[in-house]
Design goal:
Elements: H1 12-16, E1 26-30, H2 44-58, E2 62-67, E3 76-79, H3 83-89, H4 94-97, H5 102-123, E4 129-132, H6 137-142, E5 150-154, H7 160-169, E6 176-179, H8 182-188, E7 195-196, E8 232-235, H9 244-254, E9 258-261, H10 267-280, E10 290-292, H11 298-307, E11 310-313, H12 323-330, E12 335-338, H13 343-346, E13 352-355, H14 360-369, H15 375-385, H16 388-412, H17 415-426, H18 439-447
Parallel strand pairs: 1-2, 1-4, 2-3, 4-5, 5-6, 6-7, 8-9, 8-11, 9-10, 11-12, 12-13
């Protein structure tokens, strides 16, 4: 709790707010241990981690990435404990004696060793900031040693490993938290407060089409069923929570062409709800509407999005962010999507149509509305809101504030600095009595409670 500064001490604010000059930071990034931080990415978290590290290195910061040994990064890679090293460390049945699965024990030891190394480096004065993206409770709990210089980002729903730490941290912690959307922030607010720093993508790596679409280069007829150059694109993991079949049903009812791309991550779902719609398509000599092109590359996705009238977003769960939304905007492609998770935070009325979840009538109506959306507005939104540069600057602002606060606290405990601050304060007004008493009392008067 800070004490109020009397008016005759107003100049003390200038002393207090003296910030560190902008200088390179020394940052330790903790990734999760399951997959390499490398292309082809296992998921969005791997991509975000690599972009964050590489952009910070490009800006001149020193970055240590604690990650899977096969990770590829411009940062200095500090490999996690390998499976072979783990097997050599523990007995075959060690996990049984601890009441854990072998995978749980492996992850426990992975993060314990990583945090021990970080603590040792910090003890030598080699680290300014630690940023945790592991989704595991061990870094969150051990990170208490770093106070406000330790950040954890919430990328996912509250999985058991996260909840385990949050149940303790809700009672008090000096560590800091970030959420990748306001939706995430609200989700975790039951436990801890957090800053919102939206995810970012490499917008410049996407070719954009800011002109009206002019047809589609695919196996489908170049003209839509109404003779229009109109086609839609859906991509992502094909599974129940992504709602692939809903996009197909809406296009079938509206007579719209749809390109579908993505891996069959749930074969049972594909066989039950997607395959029958594909098989039914084009029967009775009707023009086919659907084209499933499988699991495609980023370049293919870029090409499909550039030629699409809009991207269809039919996720039925509350996605914490929604990288496909950002990628679509980067290509200049508007979106028709459900109002779930953070979708309405990313897609504005100028860049797409957001409707209530599974509202078929509103979604189909969106086919007419979305054609009036400016593709240039979509690209502009991506550059200003969805870029990796915007994400990194958001984190760096928090990092610098934490380092600045620590530097000020250290100066407070330096006798020479205390004497200097008292001299400045006492010289402001001859009527101000000398500040006497303990260094702690003097520091409180000058700076407020820390």
């Amino acid at each position: 709790m800070s004490c109020a500064n009397p008016s005759h001490l107003s100049n003390a604010v200038d002393f207090r707010s003296t910030s560190l000059p902008t200088k390179p930071l020394r940052i330790a990034i903790i990734a999760h241990c399951l997959y390499p931080i490398a292309q082809p990415y296992a998921g969005g978290l791997e991509m975000i981690t690599e972009l964050l590290c590489d952009e910070m290195v490009a800006q001149g910061h020193e970055v240590l990435l604690y990650a899977h040994e096969d990770s590829q990064t411009d940062a200095t890679l500090v490999p996690f404990l390998t499976r072979a090293e783990f097997d050599a460390m523990v007995y075959d049945n060690e996990h049984d004696s601890l009441g854990m699965s072998r995978e749980e024990l492996y992850q426990y030891l992975v993060y314990q060793r990583a945090l021990r190394d970080i603590l040792e480096r910090d003890g030598r004065g080699e680290i300014d900031i630690v940023h945790n993206h592991s989704l595991h409770h061990i870094p969150m709990m051990t990170g208490q040693a770093f106070g406000s210089r330790f950040f954890t980002t919430f990328h996912t729903p509250i999985f058991p490993q996260l909840r385990l730490a949050l149940l303790t941290l809700r009672h008090g912690t000096n560590t800091q938290f970030t959420a990748i959307s306001q939706h995430q922030q609200r989700l975790f607010s039951e436990f801890v407060p957090s800053h919102v720093v939206y995810n970012g993508i490499d917008v410049e790596s996407f070719t954009s089409n800011i002109e009206p679409t002019t047809g589609f280069d695919s196996n489908l007829n170049d003209k839509g069923v109404n003779g229009e150059d109109e086609v839609y694109f859906w991509y992502g993991r094909i599974c129940p929570e992504k709602g692939t079949h809903l996009a197909m049903q809406y296009c079938l009812e509206a007579g719209k062409r749809l390109i579908i791309a993505g891996p069959k991550s749930n074969e049972a779902y594909f066989d039950e709800l997607v395959a029958p719609l594909l098989a039914k398509d084009g029967q009775n000599n009707e023009q086919p509407l659907f084209d499933y092109v499988g699991h495609v590359t980023k370049d293919d996705i870029n090409r499909y999005l550039c030629r699409a009238t809009a991207m269809l977003f039919t996720s039925t769960w509350d996605e914490p962010y929604g990288l496909t939304l950002a990628e679509s905007l980067a290509c200049g492609t508007p979106v028709i999507g459900f109002n779930v998770g953070a979708s309405a935070e990313i897609i504005t009325p100028d860049t797409g149509v957001i409707v209530p979840k599974e509202d078929k009538a509103a979604f189909i109506k969106g086919f007419d509305t979305v054609k009036n959306i400016s593709r240039q507005a979509c690209r502009t939104r991506a550059l200003t809101f969805c870029s990796v540069a915007a994400m990194v600057e958001g984190y760096l602002e928090l990092y610098r504030a934490a380092v600045d606060k620590r530097e000020q606290t250290q100066r407070l405990h330096h006798p020479a600095d205390i004497t200097q601050s008292l001299t400045v304060l006492n010289g402001q007004n001859s009527k101000v009595p000398s500040l006497v008493g303990s260094d702690r009392k003097a520091a409180t008067l000058a700076y407020g409670e820390q």
